[in-house]
Amino acid sequence: MLLVLTTGGTIDKVYFDASSEYEIGEPTVPTVFREAGVTLEWRLEPLLRKDSLEMTDADRAEIRRACAEAAEERILITHGTDTMSLTAEALAGLPNKTIMLTGALAPARFRVTDAIFNLGLALGAVQSLPPGVYLAMNGTIFPAGKVRKNREAGRFEAV
């Protein structure tokens, strides 16, 4: 079984016309998985609803605790892209866990979004990689500690 932890970020943002602002809504993973016909057994645990720029060390410790205490060995985490790399590094060293972080540069609820592609990539990768911590973004799997977000280019790249 796969554990899906949601922490917020752009992937789950909702646009409100009245206020012209984004807010983090309900997790989009169940809808994406249902629409894609995912048959793998998985369990959802909404952990946080934060923009990743608002994530604290205490939040990262909570994510690490949830991963360490999970019965599942394979964990997919949706996360905001701005500090996803930092959270990935904070999860390093958990034994017998394959942890995949992914997110989106545009909300999953938008017609044009990278969210669905990134979730599909992450789902396939978390099932096939050995224990460790990884990021799935822009069609590439990056090991934790060896990736950064290039804001100007709007993509992730190896370092």
Automatic annotation (TrEMBL):
Pfam families cross-referenced by the UniProt entry: Asparaginase
Enzyme class per UniProt: hydrolase
Domain L-asparaginase N-terminal intervals: 2-151
Entries under InterPro entries matching the protein: Asp/glu_Ase-like_sf, Asparaginase/glutaminase-like, L-asparaginase_N, L-asparaginase_N_sf
Enzyme Commission no: 3.5.1.1
GO MF term (any one): asparaginase activity
Record's keyword terms, sorted: Hydrolase
Protein name: Asparaginase domain-containing protein
Organism: Luteolibacter soli
Species lineage: Bacteria, Pseudomonadati, Verrucomicrobiota, Verrucomicrobiia, Verrucomicrobiales
